[in-house]
Structure formats: structure tokens, C-alpha cells
Design goal:
Number of domains: 2
Helix content: 25-40%
Number of helices: 12
Strand order of the largest sheet: 1-11-12-13-16-10-9-4
CATH superfamily of the largest domain: Bira Bifunctional Protein, Domain 2
Structural class: alpha+beta
Distance between the termini: 52 Å
Shape: elongated
Radius of gyration: 27 Å
Order of helices and strands: HHHHEHEHEHEEHEEHEEEHEEEHEEEHEE
Number of strands: 18
CATH architecture of the largest domain: 2-Layer Sandwich
Length: about 425
RNA sequence: GGAGGCGUGUCCGAGUGGUUUAAGGAAACAGUCUUGAAAACUGUCGUAUCAGAAAUGGUACCGUGAGUUCGAAUCUCACCGCCUCCGCCA
């Protein structure tokens, strides 16, 4: 959510953001409604002030005076009720419109309609050269009994999977490896809820848009698609101490995604599943654009360090405006090379939001001059299992079908050198 | 699932119908004292929003929402959350 004052004072900027992000919203409608809001509110307040002024005299009045005062108040009360009712109606629509105003993308974000228009900004690593036709991760899983997709869909339905043997071990190894890295970097490790209340998802901007991609329970709770949701809400409604910023969390949770509208994509394997696990970086920082930018580069670099330690070829793309979420100012996707598909596939997503999320979540800190400010928020994937293991299996396969285990993961897999 | 209790500002905590933004304390900030610090003392110390150049003034806010009342932190109802005991349970 943006500040209505900012919106009013910077209508051109917001209009441009709406255009660049291809959001369907008529800003004029919001401005007109806000004019109306101010007008009604101000007249309601004037009536109320008068009512209170008279009301204060009641207790010290004689019985006759009292009657006269009450008679004076009656019409004011009625008028106030009407204005209040009107204001309530305006606010319903006002909130709805406010929730669809996008955050302003950074100037360095390229224009574009979809992920097709994202721009590669750097690549790292040598794509593996195979003397044979590389198998995809599904075939490799079947070959070594690392996963069971048939029984997965028998038990859990479409996109269901079991991880087995070294496949299961690989998940644990990646979690532990990643967790240790971030603890060394000073992050606070957390295991956070996936089952969250409706209002929690408003804070991070996954509601009201995006509802169809979330699983809902019979108690009207939701299963979050990322640990970002609960982690961001951790401090909701609180005032933080500036000296404690930035807060850096490495949060683990299961992640649930309906993948509505993606029925034809990645139907096999563990690239696109309804349920996976993820370690997520979540940061809260002081409200300062330069700090946000610096930390954004930093959380991106952390992931690149891990990819390089795993020796996985990847590239980084800057997402175009059309591929940005409503609240995102700028986003990088880190994509790992998938030999079987001969293309890069998104394994990490790194973004910053300024105060878009924290304004909704009401997370503030007291600045040096004593004023309360909304903190800035950022997040980036640290390790998404299943996509990352899929990339490892494919890149590390050898001619005889065996899969070499990345050096840095061996300590977490009993020192084993190969799968198979 | 059953019974009871509770939710007040940055924190602790008083307040059960009337100038209450809300006692008291702590913390914080400024000052006096001190070579310096601590202690002591003095003072300042809510957020949001509207009007205003400002001083200032209006309104809202005591978990959330609705209601009663001329008037609500205080009374009523619903919801959310927390605590205690019982039951069940990994």
C-alpha cells in the first residue's frame, strides 16, 4: 500500500507505475473518491465537534436547560449519523482501490509485458558439456529411485511426489548447508507457520489479488506459498528499535501453491509442485532507498555465493515491469541452468518493497529525529527444494548415469561421492 | 471440548459513565549539580488525520467490530488473542 498523500502529490508517478506494471486501475476514480472522503469526513467532524461542545454542558445544566440542550443535540446526532454512514460506504471502496495501487518500480527496471522481456544482467559458470544426451531430473530420479511420482500422484494427486533415498537426503543436505551459511552471515534462523490467517496474507500483498493461487481451509485460514508471509507478519503492529535494524531472518517452511492457470506447464517432476520446502531470506531495514538497494544486492549476492559453492551454472535477470508483483520495486530472478531443457529456470527470486508491505503490516521504528517511520522490507529465496535439487541432479550427471554429489554437500550426505 | 480470568501509551501499571490523552512508575531526551560519570533534582515526553505559513485548533484512537447513551477506556453483544484449571493428545 502506498501513502494516500504520496499518491495525491505524485499522481504522474503513480499513473506511470500503473501503466508500466499494466495494472487495471483508474487513478482518477481514486482521487475523486478521496476528495469526497475528505469532504464528508470534515463535515462529519464539524458536526461532531458541535455535538460534543453542547454535550459537555449537560451535566451542569438545570433540568429545564437540560431539555433544551438535548433538543439541540438531537438533529446534530442525526446529521452526524448520515455523514458517518456515507463515510463508511466511501471507505469500503476507498480501501479496495488503495489495495490495487501498485508500488512504483525503480528507474532501472526495464519496461516489458511478461517474463519474456526480463533482461539478463550476468551469467556465471560453464554449462556442462555432455558426450551423451543428458537425462532430465525425472529420468534420473527414476533411475536411482530418488523420487516416486507414480505413488506421489496416487497418494497426493496431480503433482504429488515422494522423495526417497539420496533424493530425500539431498533435500536435507541443502537445507543444512544453506542454513549454516546464513547463520554465519548473522541471520536469525526461524521455522515459521505456513497455516496463516486471512489478514496475514493482506500484509504481504498476496491478498486480495492472488487468492486463487492459495489453498484455503474450512476455517478460512490459508496455506502460505512462502515463509515470507509469516516472517514478515512476525513484527506486525510493532515498533522496532532503529539500532536493531536491519533484521535478517533465514526462515524455513513448507510452501503450498495451487498453480492455478499453470495446468499444462512442467507436468512432470519436481519443477512445479503444489507442496515444497523453502528457506527464505527476509529483511527489515531502515526506511532509506540507498539502504534497500544495497541490501537487495547483498541478498542477491548471498544466493550467488551459494550457487557458486554448489558449482551450478546460473544467470541473473532483472525482471521487467510487467513481471513485477504489485508491491515490488525491483526484482532479480536467479535462474539455474537445466541441461535437459537447455534453458535457465528460476530457482530464486530477490526483491525489495520499500514500505509497501510494512505500511500494511504496520511495522515501524523511531528515527533519530523522533518520528515514526515504516521500515523497508526485502526478501529472497535462499534454497527452494525441489527446484534446486532438480538442477543439481541434471548438472551433475555423468555418462554412466551416476550423479556426482557437489563437494560442499558431501559432509551432509555421509561423505558419499556419487549417487548410483 | 468444558470452566474461569484477562487485553490500557515504548514498557510496567492505575482507572468501571462526564474537560481522561488517560494517575503513578520505568525507559528516553534536555538541563542543574559534578573534573567526568553515577545518584539526586528540574523540565520535556502518544499516534493518525483535517485546517493553517506557523502558533494553534477540530476529529479519531485504551485488542477488533457493532450497539446503548446528550456523553463510553468504563455498560451490552460478537469476534480475535492471551492466561489458569480440567479433559484429550505428538
Amino acid at each position: 500500500m502506498l501513502d494516500i498523500k504520496f499518491i495525491r502529490d505524485n499522481q504522474d508517478v503513480v499513473r506511470e507505475a500503473i501503466r508500466r506494471k499494466a495494472v487495471s486501475l483508474d487513478l482518477n476514480e481514486l482521487i475523486a473518491l478521496d476528495d469526497r472522503r475528505r469532504e464528508v469526513q470534515s463535515s462529519a467532524e464539524t458536526i461532531r465537534a458541535e455535538q460534543k461542545r453542547i454535550s459537555d454542558k449537560v451535566q451542569s445544566a438545570t433540568p429545564e436547560e437540560r431539555e433544551a440542550l438535548l433538543a439541540e443535540i438531537r438533529p446534530l446526532k442525526e446529521q452526524y449519523g448520515i455523514k458517518e454512514e456515507e463515510l463508511k460506504e466511501i471507505m469500503v471502496k476507498w480501501r479496495e482501490l488503495m489495495l490495487s495501487v501498485p508500488n512504483v518500480p525503480d528507474m532501472t527496471v526495464p519496461d516489458g509485458a511478461s517474463d519474456e522481456d526480463n533482461q539478463e544482467i550476468r551469467t556465471w559458470g560453464e554449462k556442462p558439456q555432455f558426450s551423451f544426451t543428458p537425462k532430465d531430473h525425472v529420468a534420473l530420479c527414476e533411475l536411482h529411485d530418488l523420487a516416486d511420482f507414480e505413488r506421489g500422484s496416487k497418494v497426493a494427486g496431480f503433482r504429488g511426489y515422494f522423495m526417497k533415498n539420496e533424493g530425500a537426503q539431498l533435500f536435507f543436505a541443502l537445507w543444512q548447508f544453506t542454513l549454516n551459511y546464513f547463520i554465519e552471515q548473522g541471520y536469525t534462523p526461524m521455522i515459521v507457520p505456513s497455516l496463516v490467517k486471512r489478514e496475514t496474507l493482506f500484509g504481504t500483498g498476496y491478498l486480495p489479488q492472488g487468492e486463487e493461487d492459495l489453498y484455503k481451509t474450512q476455517d478460512d485460514d490459508f496455506l502460505a506459498g512462502t515463509a515470507e508471509v509469516a516472517t514478515m507478519s512476525y513484527y506486525s503492529g510493532e515498533i522496532l528499535t532503529k539500532a536493531d535494524l536491519p533484521k535478517k531472518f533465514i526462515a524455513f517452511s513448507p510452501c503450498f501453491r495451487r498453480e492455478a492457470g499453470a495446468h499444462g506447464k512442467d507436468v512432470k517432476g519436481i519443477i512445479r509442485v503444489h507442496e515444497f520446502f523453502k528457506l527464505e531470506q527476509v529483511l527489515l531495514s531502515e526506511a532509506n532507498h540507498e539502504t534497500s538497494v544495497r541490501l537487495h544486492e547483498e541478498i542477491t549476492a548471498h544466493v550467488e555465493n551459494l550457487m557458486q559453492a554448489l558449482k551450478l551454472p546460473y544467470h541473473v535477470v532483472v525482471n521487467c515491469t510487467g513481471d513485477l508483483g504489485l508491491g515490488q520495486v525491483k526484482k532479480y530472478d536467479i535462474e539455474a541452468w537445466m541441461p535437459s531443457q537447455e534453458k535457465y529456470r528460476e530457482t530464486h527470486s530477490s526483491s525489495y518493497f520499500h514500505d509497501f508491505q510494512t505500511r500494511r503490516l504496520n511495522i515501524r521504528y523511531r528515527d533519530d529525529d523522533g518520528t515514526l517511520r515504516y521500515v523497508h522490507s526485502l526478501n529472497n529465496t535462499a534454497c527452494a527444494t525441489s527446484r534446486l535439487p532438480a538442477a543439481i541432479l541434471e548438472n551433475y550427471q555423468e555418462a554412466d548415469g551416476r550423479i556426482r554429489i557437489p563437494d560442499v554437500l558431501r559432509p551432509y550426505m555421509g561423505g558419499k561421492e556419487y549417487i548410483g
